[in-house]
Amino acid sequence: MARWPAVRWLLWSGIAGAGLVAAAALSYPLWLQPLVERRASVMLARPVTIGHLHLLTSGRLAASAEDVIIGNPPGFPPNEEPFLRVPRLTVLLDVVKSIRQRKIVFTSVQLERPMVHATATADGQDNYHLHSVAGAGALINLVGIVDGRAFVSVPVQHTALEVTFAAEPVADKAVATRITAEARGTYADQPLTAQFEGGAPRDSVSPSPGWPITLSIQNGPTRASARGTLEEPLNLHSATASLLLAGPDMALLRSLTGVPFPATPPYELHGRLDYAAGIYRLTDASGRLGRSDVAGTMTVAARAEARPEITAELLSHNVALTDIEALLRGEPVVPGTPGETAQQHAQASRLEAESRASPRVFPTAPFHLEKLERTDLHLTYRAERIQGAAMPFDDLVLRMDVVDGAATLHPLSFGVGDGRIAGEVWLTPQKGALRARADIKLAQLDVSHLMRASGRFRGAGALNGTAHLEGVGRSIAEILGNADGALSLWMAGGDLSSLLVNLVGLRLGNALLSGLGRSPNTHVECFVGDLELRRGLLAIRRLLMKTEDAVTEGVGEIDLGREQVNVQLRTASRRFTVGVVPAPLLIDGTFKNLRAAPAVREGLVGNLAKIPTIQPGIGDGPRCDGSSAQSER
Length: 633
Hints:
633 residues; alpha+beta; two-stranded parallel sheet
């Protein structure tokens, strides 16, 4: 009999346990829904609510949720729309793989009519960066999205976009889901259209070759397209793609990439893009910049809380001189450049007209020092051929480093025939201005190239020299206007146009004979120039040119600040010469308006000095021995 109470207790306990199990099964939404909401809120670090939750078990665990809302992060303005609304969400959980992987593994996730509101406030807060806690990640094998829409609003970036997107299963061995998206609106105050097509790997748990993607963007006048693969697109770690970039100015890429590229002429570049750990690498790049071709590699390191760093090795086979001149002036577009916009053409035409009307030659536009501080740059550039008759340069070699706002060009080298102009330049910010220092060497410059650039006279020989300059200013004109330094030039041997030498010496009789073709060239025994630069004033300490029948010496100064010239050249014939004006040649005026005439006084004496006379000749005159060595020292 004593056993009956125990039996009754066990019986009633079993009935109660069964009742509790039955009650739990019948009331699972009451306890499971809050659990899921809390778990999702922890994973996403923001509130998650579910209107209704339905649970089905049939070997695999399936759940259907209605009116799912993912809210905004803590501290976000309360009146803003929530980040995501999903009228219906269906998930299928792979319990076995979840246990094995120690992560939640969803066999499939289906979203119907999801609505995304991605926005940012004026103080920099945004609701579209999803931060999950460590170890709370999930893996999804198959995603389905029906009629997805997103509204993106970032007032600080002048961005307002509407995006439609969808995802559907496909019958493919490698890809399980085909994802498409299309965006329209404005980005960085420019109209934007974009199309995206991608595919999720069939098994996102096992190692895969990545998500294949195709992307095309038109942001104002800038075009970009990419075709390749992404790794973990929701938390981008790496990417590989073929890339096309084209537009009127690379500075416009800052809004798309976050990298402050310098202003450039219109461009079009093709290449292979690789991304990993915040570093973009463009290889096998080729295309054009203005009228010049360009090829090479470029690496951009854009890490968080660090200044972007650009490393580039570029090569051009043919460079238009107009592109180099425009970049040096800080006006990267000249009228008529292929690919220019109407706005660029109007601006370039206006700047060109202002330059023609201005009495100045040196640029007076102030430096934008903040541009030097926006990014670090390491550039190696080589131009095999420079096209343009206005300058005698044949090729260019340049290495530029910009670090912490200070720029160094080492070397900056131009080819002139068999010789070179090579130097180093240092640019350092200093109290709102720029301190510039340059050391330049001229080695065996081909005089024939230099004279050919004049378009009128000919010559031959090898010119050598050195130059040093140091100054501070807020523009090129201001730096040169107060600079200190020195310039030395020398040449031994060679020849020059007889017409040029006779005109400089005011030897009118010989000039007439030279113009008729008699003795077109004259031998140069030596040329020496020694000039000193003090506070922008370039004074001639010694200027001597000795040819086979004349000696020319010069005195005077060149004011770089005021861009004025006042130089006298006096020529003495070494032999008996008829028809010589007995006065030095005065070269004066501004850099834009130089004049050359006999330096004579007014009145009777001046008029007599203009009458050609006879010079008996001075013989050998000054000696050239040691002149070159002295100038070099």
